[in-house]
Fold this protein.
Amino acid sequence: MPNIISREQAEALISEQLRPEITQKVPEQSAFLSMARRLPNMTSKQTRMRVLDVLPMAYFVNGDTGYKQTSEMGWDNVFVTAAELAVIVPIPEAVLDDADFDIMGEVTPRVLEAMHRKVDGAILFGINRPAEWDADIITRARQAGNNVAVAAGRDMYDLILGEYGAFAKVEESGYEVTGVMGGLGMRVKLRGLRTPDGQPIFSTSMQGTTQYALDGVAMQFPKNGAFDNSIAQMIVGDFSQAVYSIRQDITVKILDQSVIQDPVTKEIVYNLAQQDMIALRVVMRLGWALPNPATPLDEGRTACPFAYIEPGTPVTTKTVTFTVTNGTGNDATPVEGAAVEVEGARLLTNSSGQCAFNLRAGSYDVRVRAKGYKTMTDSVTVAGSNVTKAVTLVAN
């Protein structure tokens, strides 16, 4: 066999074509912030909203000389509290100098995408939820009974639009669905739905673009990785009832004279000046709320403008039963109609002075109110078993 100069032997001499861009997806923004209602920017850490808490009553007057009765109205405070979201990305200056691309320009949009993913995860599912924020949308919907369980004999169309489906849960609470959100896997399930004669429900043309809409409401399939299919397959609701406000818009700052410490050990990890490094610092502060004012269909404010379809295996929760009385021991008398609020989720006690929440593991702030009594604040911790909690109210 004749001797030749092979490709392997000449590899060091062969230049490679380098494409002038980095192959990547366009960074995804927050799905929740794009659908919720934005309030004016906050001027302090906390903004107070006044919401209707007690509806007035009207009465018929008996006879020509009957007495007209009086009524009352009441308001409650809902707070939008800003939480800070931040990250620092250190980069050696030598790496910046030697790179063929603008590293800072590549890093910044990905950091913003990661921050928006955190916002969606915390508000929708309670993932890494900051202590300043109320309970997430899924938790609020669960307490209102707006979780739709997968069951034999119910197809996806029935779970969404059926008489006892997710849309019905929202509408029975006095709201109209304005938005639908689902994981990418939901598209597969929707494409599989057929009319009685076997035609696809969500496709009209094999050549045209399929527009996914439910009862005239457009759908979103977030691609930023925040939608947790292990908690919900789909979320539907009146997104105009969810509000958010910006305390500090996203700010980007380049640091070159700082030290970076380990947040746990407090040890200095990098000294930027001494090690010829810079760091990209990105910060934003925002808050959100679900005010849930009293309506003629929900005078007790126990409903929720959101509903969701559970996965095949629902998330494990524990029952937390509150018993509200106005005394202790033999003198304890149940307080009916007391409002028990667990970080925004609200239930009213029954004739036995009890109400039950279904909560995931964690610690929760509790507020109990009843007419004629002082407001009580407490906390409850949920771990591996059901919890009973006694609350004693004191008369004004």
